[in-house]
Amino acid sequence: MHAPTLLRGLLVLALSAAALSAPRPASAQLTRTDSAAVLLAAAEDFANRGAHDIAEALYRHILERFPGTAAAGTARTRLDGVTDQRSRTGGEVEIKVWSTIYGLYNGGVLMPMAFNADEAEAIGAGLLIGGPVGFLIGHQLTRARSYSPGQARAVTWGASWGTIQGALFAIMFDVDAEVAARLMLAGGAAGLAAGSLIARREIPAGTGTSAMLGSLWGLWYGVASSVLVELEFQGTGAAMMLAGNAGLIVGAVAGSRVPLSRGRARLISLGGVLGGFAGAGMVLIGQPDSEKVAIGIPMVMSMAGLAVGALATRGGDWADRSDDVRSAASLSAPGSLLNWSEGDWALSTPLPIPAREATPVNGGRDGLIWKVPLLKVRF
Predict the structure, then answer these.
(1) How far apart are CA 168 and CA 162, in angstroms?
(2) What share of the chain is helix, strand, coil (3-state, %, to 5)?
């Protein structure tokens, strides 16, 4: 918003407050109905000029200060229209930011690995090309139509989840790094197409977020379960795939059938994270001899944390009223599961990163390993 428009809005609010508080002769005083009508006219003027945030502030001011007036009824109708319009848009920034970062990841990491080009020049060229191409793809997607936050999350997480599925296939079949990168590229493309198809229908923001978080929790429970039943490395990949997709479905169904905002979905997940880390702390203090006990305690505690989070957030107003820039900060771009920056915690997508390192399984020879970043702290 331009500064002059913002100043005009603040001036209207200040003048209205002064007009209401200034002493006047009884014959000259404005009635509540007149005052509300003046503010309503100003709000509609700002709305017609495109200053919807100032208009929304004035509508809310009318509802708070002049309830029961005709202008308040009109303001409520106008406010519902503004809210509905915002719910149908607002995902464009997330798609553009995500597509740019994802283009850098594909161009600088997966493409060189897929063609066994580990020279610095190849990686540099991939970074130079991947970022702009990714941005252009996101720009074209958002030019064709508008996206709500839920629809944007379907697109971005669809491609991210497809990439993860490719990595899990590589684990299941124990392929080399080149094939693994190609599987991840193919999975990302398929996921992008599937997410774009799903995004043709209206998706509440809470549903998109709960589906994403459900799939991440499924990955964790797949890993933990594979340890409990003593699966081999390939079996762990299969368990993660099954549990992750089950979590995706459960999260999507829960988000669509239960009144679940994006804010509440995050708080429930935060409860699970706190429970899991509490369990990890108990393991570090108790030092159990059994590996199954060591993984089982955080697993059970994270389940308890999710349950407590769901119960504690019932009946609250957890609607996310943040703007596009803030919502883009939480998008599902490659990163760590937990991120801390400038005093704020955020959940992100921990995309597995393939690498070649010497492993005991291969007798000390170089082999394909997968690094999953769990924590990133930025000071």
Answers:
(1) 10
(2) 70, 5, 20
In whole angstroms, give the CA distance from residue 332 to residue 324: 14
Residue 227 CA to residue 223 CA, distance in Å, equals 7
Q: Answer whether 167's CB lies under 8 Å from 236's CB.
A: no
- Residue pair 95/152 in contact (Cβ under 8 Å)? The answer is yes
Q: How far is CA 138 from the centre of its chain?
A: 16
What is the token pair recorded at 240?
């993660």
Residues in Cβ contact with 27 at an 8 Å cutoff, skipping those fewer than 6 apart: none
Residue with tokens 């000390």: 364
Lowest mean pLDDT among 179-193, 212-226, 247-261, 339-353: 339-353
| Spatial CB neighbours of 157, under 8 Å, sequence gap ≥ 6 | 195, 208, 211, 212, 215, 332, 349
Q: Which tokens is 174 given?
A: 């124990």
Closest CA to 135 of 91, 102, 109, 158: 102
Q: Measure the CA angle with vertex 128, ends 183 and 187; round to 5°.
A: 15
Quickly count: other Cβ atoms within 10 Å of residue 41's Cβ. 11
Which residue type, as a one-letter code, is found at position 184? M
Of 47, 137, 45, 153, give the one whose Cα is nearest residue 90: 153
Burial class from Cβ neighbours inside 10 Å (0-12, 13-18, 19+) for residue 8 reads: middle
C-alpha of 289 from chain center? 38
Residue 346: what pLDDT?
A: 63
- Higher-confidence position of 13 and 270: 270
